[in-house]
Amino acid sequence: MNGKRFTRRDFLKGATVGAAGVAMAACIPAETAAPASDMPAAEGVTLRFMSRPHSQLAQEVFPDLIADNFTANTDPPINVNVETAASGWADKLVTSMIAGDAVDIFQAWPDIFYVWVAKDLILDIQPYVDRDLTQADLDDFIEAQWTRLRIRGIRVGMPKYIDVRCMAYNKDLFDEYGVAYPSNFGADWDWQEFTAMAEALTQDKDGDGAIDLWGSRIVPTSSAEFFGWLRAFGGDYVNPNDDTDCWLDEPASQEAMNWVFENMWVKEPNPFIRPEDVSGTYDDFVSGRVAIPWFNVRPAQQAEQVGQEINWDYAHVPSGPVRRDALGDADAWSIWNGSSHPDEAWHFINFLSGPVFQELGTLRSEGSLPIRKSLMNKAVDVYREEFPAVADKHLEIIPEMMEMGYLENVIWFKDNAAAFELIGPAMERIFNLGDADPSLMIEVCAEVEAYQASLE
Amino acid sequence: MIRGQSLPSIHRGRGRYRVEHISGRVVLYLVITAGAFIFSTPLLWMISTSLKSPELINRIPIVWIPPELRWANYIDPWVEMPFLLFYWNTIFITVTNTAIILITNSLVAFGFARIPFKGRTIIFFVLLATMMLPPQVTMIPTYLFWSRLRLVNTFWPIMAPEWLSAAYDVFLMRQFYMTISTDLDEAARIDGCSWFGIYRHIILPLSKPVIGVLAILNFSFNWNNFITPLIYLNDSRLFPIALGLRLFETQMGGGDTYVRLGPLMAMTLVSIIPLMAAFFIAQRYFIQGIVITGIKG
Amino acid sequence: MAQAVSGNSPARGRFALSPQARINIAGYLFITPWILKFLTLNAGAMIVSLGISLFKTDFFTTFDFIGFDNYTRLFRDPLFWKSLTVTAYYAFGMVPLALVFSLVIALFLNQNVKFQGVYRVVYYLPSIVSGVAVAILWKYLLQPRWGLINQGLALLGIEGPKWLFSTTWAMPAFILMGVWAAGGNMLLYLAGLQGIPTDLYHAASIDGANAWHRFWRITLPMLTPTIYFNLIISIIGAWQIFTQSYIITAGGPDNSTLTMVLLLYRKGFQQFHFGYASAIAWVLFTIVMLFTVLIVRSSEAWVFYAGEVRG
Fold first, then answer.
1. Considering just the CA atoms, what is the radius of gyration of chain A in Å?
2. Quick check: is C308 in a domain?
């Protein structure tokens, strides 16, 4: 275990320079094509980069990776100070942006971008993209993510990694209760099949009269997860064409909510676990309390947390009455609008999203999913090699998801925070407490719309 | 007069208390042991968690003793992160701050408690008022202050404000000083002793318990403080341990937080050992200390 | 201070200050560190935040003076009233409980027991373990079906509540956490107990007072300065409760743990309504101030100082 980490670290720190050089020459035209009108001539600049690495290894190797593969290829040199951020970083960032001494580059996601763009805190990188990226580059990004990073009329940043959602299923439990596995790793199943399986897998295993195995777990209070189910039924949180129009009162959204509500609070026994019985996604799965949980495809985490404890595999999310939909999360590296080195910062984030760093940094060091289609098959190989505990899993689900093209993103209200101040507690009443049914959302929606419409 | 001797030793020798005494002590031991058990359960859980592999951590029913003790949780982090450096930073900040705080706070508290200067009551009220505004709203103006002085990413914003006294400590010390009889300082004043002389020779020797308590509280506070370091330190080589521990948490997309619980618990436990040791030493010290000074008084 | 200097005749030179003037100078000299801190760090920040509460501002794009609009909007905001009741509930539950509980523990641990130091460490420990470790720990302990607390209650034949999954029990769960971490208060009482002159107990024993009488007539009155301190500090702390609801429940379920500081944090750092957030903070300030004034005013009647200096 330990030995392995050292070899990986050594590999990433040392042996990369050669490989990276080749990849650089082949894949990053932007690096050399940079005309950069107002680039300082002499001793170069130092960028401040707030990094939130997803693994310990990444925390260790990022400075070297960047020095060897980015700074070494810049002239005049663009040095990068990697500032590892601890949780609470967002408050620090806001405070330092107000004071005017924030980092040049940071990482965030659409909930945050939505607010920050409105406050003019994020540099629009569209002009740089138009200038430096080729069509081949653009085609290599995952479309849902690339589209999603245009927010309120500007391009907020370059994609960092992609976090995709799927299901997982515990084969041991399927075998034990004689339920057939989802065919084709879920590529064919729909919500009705899924519900039937969940019902069959809701059991009182120890026979003490209380249910201790539930079919599935849906988290309707997480918009990142639940919007997919809403869309599968043809609904949504918000009208895609009018960000003041709440859609949770639409029949399709109501149908989706009722489906979850019934399986959670009405049916006896309830095939979807109630929040109060949950102990944790991985724990419930490994301990055999939830048979088909919602998952993120994060092989590094799953190798550690689930491993070989049970016999399991990944599955696509089931399609709903209308379509299939799941989140492809859009984290991005952005440039602070107050940065005094926007050109250099652009070169740097372009490097971060480029094939070299995506492979060495994102995939190999962080164990996260890269943002380039061209790296997806490689990702599968790397995961098999680096994380033997998930080597026998259907990791091909990753390229399949890209191909099937059902990954999407949440759409936000005009003032999303204000909308969710009303929607959140109502969702908690319905699904976490079970003391209201989804029709509650009809009146809440009216309140939301009244407020959103009042905004100028 | 003798201060601070604990009660039972006084009536230990007196016959008519004996029965009450023995049954009372049985009850006493039962209660404090039961309480200690409840209070230490969370600690036991932390110890157990710190020795588990990830998949065992939330296992229900709880596995108190993992089949295989995972000592790697205690060892790996030292290689992965500069914990020695984190400790050095913490020790530097904590020890310096605590030492200076005790001096300035006791001086300020003496001023408020013993010297009847004009405006004392209202100024003391202002001091209390500084605690009543939640730090979340004063954070931005305070950051602006340090930012304009170009002292962000140094220890100054973490240390200097502490040195200049803290309302909590001053209030506590003032309360304590006001329980010490004024007879002695009046006599000393007549003898021509200065205010500082009274502070130095009368009040300070009598205030060991409160200094002991404040030493413990300030030591713990500075040791555990992560919010000011988080806001003011950019370079991880300057991080104290409390901030270093936050690096075990990763926020994935959408605010989904992933925590490596085993190593986090292991390192949290390691980090509170010095606090426990400090407490253990200090609590003995301040109790013995008071008996001695009390006899003198 | 200026008035104080005027009393004596100037003819006696610059050292001829009146006694009160000398006292004033000494007093201000002693509190100089605090004055410096107040002038550099506290006063500015407080004035700025008070000023900002009169503006509609995000610190970036808008900075409009709107007078008391933030305050009038506040009083029409149902979320604000919700947070006010939630916070008041916590404060009124937590303050007396923690006050009494930590006093009882301190009295026990002040007895001459074996391994006294060890017991003290055990009771004090929860107050120094902080951060996310504690949040995770409590989530686990409070889990309705599997958590240790409800399992323990089940052993006693009690069906435990749903804690963080109940609008009724979420706040009591926070109070439980607060009481668990009351070791700091305990420490202060312990120190206070050391300060009680033993000869008082001797005298009382000779008079035939039993333990109960000794407690009411000696221990409690002599501890009033510490109780007074703990009371004020606990009130200030309880009204500012934030971390638990921020980390553990995010204000839920159904806003039942939405505290005032969590609301102002959301309004400020997440929604950029900094003026509004400041207004919440100043309402909070006013409430705590009112309680403190009440306590300070009443203290003459119940707080006993052996060494009070008047003037």
1. 23
2. no
C-alpha to C-alpha distances, B21 to B6, C110, C111, nearest whole angstrom: 14, 15, 12
Does the residue C310 lie in any domain? no
Does A446 contact chain C (CB < 8 Å)? no
Q: Which residue out of B55, B74, B81, B151 would a mutagenesis test of the A interface target, given it has the greatest number of A Cβ atoms within 10 Å? A: B55
> Does the pLDDT at position A391 exceed 90?
yes
Shortest CA distance from C162: residue in chain A? A276
Closest CB to A429 among C61, C254, C269 = C254
Same domain, C199 and C56: no
- C-alpha distances in Å from residue A290, one per residue of A273, B241, C43, C227: 7, 37, 55, 50
In this structure, are C110 and C208 located in the same domain?
Answer: yes
pLDDT reported for residue A143: 85
Read off the DSSP letter of residue C207: T
CB contact under 8 A, C252 and A432: yes
- ipTM at complex level: 0.89
A132-175 pLDDT tens trace: 999 999 999 988 889 889 998 999 999 999 989 999 999 999 99
**Inter-chain contact B242–C131, Cβ cutoff 8 Å?**
yes
| Segments of chain B assigned E as strands | 249-251, 257-259
| Contact state of B58 with A306 under an 8 Å Cβ cutoff | no
| Chain C CB within 8 Å of residue A98 CB | yes
pLDDT digits (tens, 9 = 90+) for B164-210: 989 999 999 999 888 887 887 778 877 878 888 888 888 888 888 88
Which residues of chain B make contact with A57, given a CB cutoff of 8 A? 80
Interface of B with A in 49-78 (CB under 8 A): 54-55, 57-60, 72, 76
CB-facing half-sphere around the CA of C201: CA atoms within 13 A: 22
Partner-chain residue, chosen from A84, A95, A298, that has the shortest CB–CB distance to B247: A84
Q: Which residue of C165, C242, C256 to mutate against A (max A Cβ within 10 Å)? A: C165
Across the interface, of C46, C123, C278, the residue whose CB is closest to B36 is C123
Orientation angle between helical segments B18-50 and C132-142, nearest 10 degrees: 110
Residue of B nearest to C22 (CA): B117
Q: Is B268 on the interface with C (CB under 8 A)?
A: yes
| Chain C residue at shortest CA distance from A429 | C254
Same domain, C149 and C192: yes
User: Are C122 and C244 in a shared domain?
Assistant: yes
Q: C237 with C215, same domain?
A: yes
A226 — pLDDT class (breaks 50, 70, 90): very high
Q: Are residues C62 and C153 in the same domain?
A: no
Tally of CA atoms within 13 A in the half-sphere of A233 that contains its CB: 22
Domain count, chain C: 2
Question: Of the CATH numbers 3.40.30.10, 3.30.1330.30, 2.60.40.1180, 1.10.3720.10, which one belongs to the domain with range B76-296?
Answer: 1.10.3720.10
Reported as a single tens digit per residue, the pLDDT across C29-58 is 999 999 999 999 999 999 999 999 999 998
The secondary element (H helix, E strand) that includes residue A46 is strand A45-51
Q: Which residues of chain B have pLDDT under 70?
A: 1-20, 60, 251-256, 285-297
H or E stretch including C64?
Answer: strand C63-65
Residue among A272, A299, A283, A315 nearest A169 (CA): A315
Identity of the residue in A119, A279, A432 whose CB atom sits nearest the CB atom of C253: A432
Does residue C309 form part of some domain? no
Domains and CATH numbers, chain A: 2-161+330-393 (3.40.190.10), 164-327+410-454 (3.40.190.10)
Q: Which residues contact A367 (CB under 8 A, 6 or more apart)?
A: A54, A55, A298, A299, A300, A301, A383, A386, A387
Q: What is the pLDDT of residue A251?
A: 96
For residue C107, give its domain range: 70-302
Average pLDDT over residues C221-238: 93
Mean pLDDT of C221-226: 90
pLDDT in tens, A35-78: 444 444 457 899 999 998 888 888 889 999 999 999 999 989 99
- In the block, tokens 């309402």 appear at C283
